[in-house]
Every structure is written in C-alpha cells, then in structure tokens.
Design a protein that fits this description.
Blueprint (H helix, E strand, L loop, with lengths): L2 E3 L5 H10 L5 E3 L12 E2 L1 E3 L6 H14 L1 H7 L1 E12 L4 E5 L4 E2 L5 E2 L2 E6 L6 E3 L2 E5 L2 E5 L6 E5 L4 E3 L2 E4 L1 E10 L4 H21 L3 H17 L3
Helix pairs in contact: 4-5
C-alpha cells in the first residue's frame, strides 16, 4: 500500500528544520548505502556528527508518532535509520531496493519506507520519487511537510534533479504487522469503524467491526 499523508510537519517544525540544516554539514550519501546501492546513489546526507542532527530527527519522529493516519496505516513498532538527504542539480538515486535489515549489532527490519518532503515542489526541477508497482511506475512529488509511505520491498528511484535543491527526510519502520496486505486490511477496518462511530456512535455494527479489528491485530501483531 502506498499512502501520502498531508501536513505531517507543522509550518513551524518545517521552518525550524530547514533553517537549521546547513549544506556544509552534508557528506557523500554512499556512506550509508548497501554495496549494490552505492553504484546508483548520487546525493549527499547530513552527517551524524552535526550537533543538531539528533534534534531534527526527534522533531520528525515526534510528528510521525502523533499522526493518526500514519499510526493506523503503518502500525509502527520502531521508526529507525532516519537520514536527511540533499540533491543538488544533477544528483539522483537510481533503481534500488532498501536493505531488509538495518543497523549493526541490533538489527531492525525495514517493513515500510517513508519520505518526508522538506523542499517545496517549486524549489526544484525533476527529483521525482518513482515507485515500481504491479500497476506500473508511480511518480511522487509532494508539498513540503507531506510524507509518502510504501512497502520497503518496492523497487524505487529518485529522478535526476534538473534545477534547484531537493531536501527530504527518509526513514524506515519496523511494523507491528510485517505483511503489507494485512496492514491494509487493518487500515480499512479501522477506517470503517471510525466512520460508523463518528456518524452513529457506539452501535452493534461498530462493536462487531471493532471485535474483528482487535482479533486480527492480536493474530498478526509481532511484539
């Protein structure tokens, strides 16, 4: 399931992040790429040595944790391996699939990949995120502060930036529910029961759907 989520970051959070990011603190993005992705990764990313790096990561993570749609769609257990990536004119990231496991000693699964856009689409040319799906290629270029989430099993690429600068925050999620189809079923059930509750309150139909939702989550959750 591919899902765009509007306004994950507030205007204040977005301004704070973009004002504090310093282009001189960005290093070659190949340093965190897998051995096969290094060949096609041509961007820069914020060095972990930047004194403000963790503060900015915390802002993005807190925004994701409070977002209701992100919570019910992704079922996050851990948001990890966050990076701030920067693409200047001519930079790109060719076709690749994200590593299944990330980290050194304490490995974490990448079930869901996410991108939070920090640059307005008018600030750069090209730079579209392209996802390869069974319906064909899907092109994504969102407003600053919006996010896209998608299964980490997808092949994807970032088209070359033709002008301006593209800045994003990227991260991965180990979900409580690793199967994307199961997550989609849970999202649909939760959406339906919330709509019923909003319209009619706590009805017998709401209780029945809630029972099915809870029992499926109990069955599928990896805690």
């Amino acid at each position: 399931m591919i899902l765009s989520i509007a306004k994950v970051l507030t205007t204040e959070e977005l301004n704070l992040i973009t004002e504090r990011l310093d282009a001189t603190d960005f290093i070659d993005g190949k340093t965190t790429a897998g051995w096969h992705a290094k060949v096609v990764k041509h961007n820069t990313q914020l060095t972990s040595k930047a004194t403000y790096a963790q503060d900015l990561k915390d802002i993005v993570k807190k925004a994701l944790w409070r977002n209701q749609l992100f919570q019910i769609a992704v079922q996050p257990k851990v948001i990890h391996s966050m990076l701030f990536s920067r693409y200047q004119t001519g930079m790109s990231y060719g076709w690749h699939v994200d590593n299944a496991l990330m980290g050194n000693q304490n490995k974490l699964r990448s079930d869901v990949s996410l991108t939070v856009f920090l640059s307005a689409p008018s600030a750069y040319g090209g730079g579209e995120l392209i996802l390869e799906t069974i319906q064909g290629e899907q092109t994504i270029k969102l407003e600053a502060g919006d996010a896209i989430v998608y299964p980490s099993s997808f092949l994807h690429q970032v088209e070359p930036v033709t002008e301006g600068v593209r800045v994003v925050a990227v991260a991965w999620v180990q979900s409580l529910v690793r199967d994307p189809h199961e997550r989609e079923i849970l999202l649909e059930l939760d959406t339906a029961r919330r709509a019923i509750f909003h319209k009619d309150g706590k009805t017998a139909e709401f209780d029945l759907i809630s029972k099915s939702y809870s029992n499926l989550l109990r069955k599928w959750a990896d805690v």
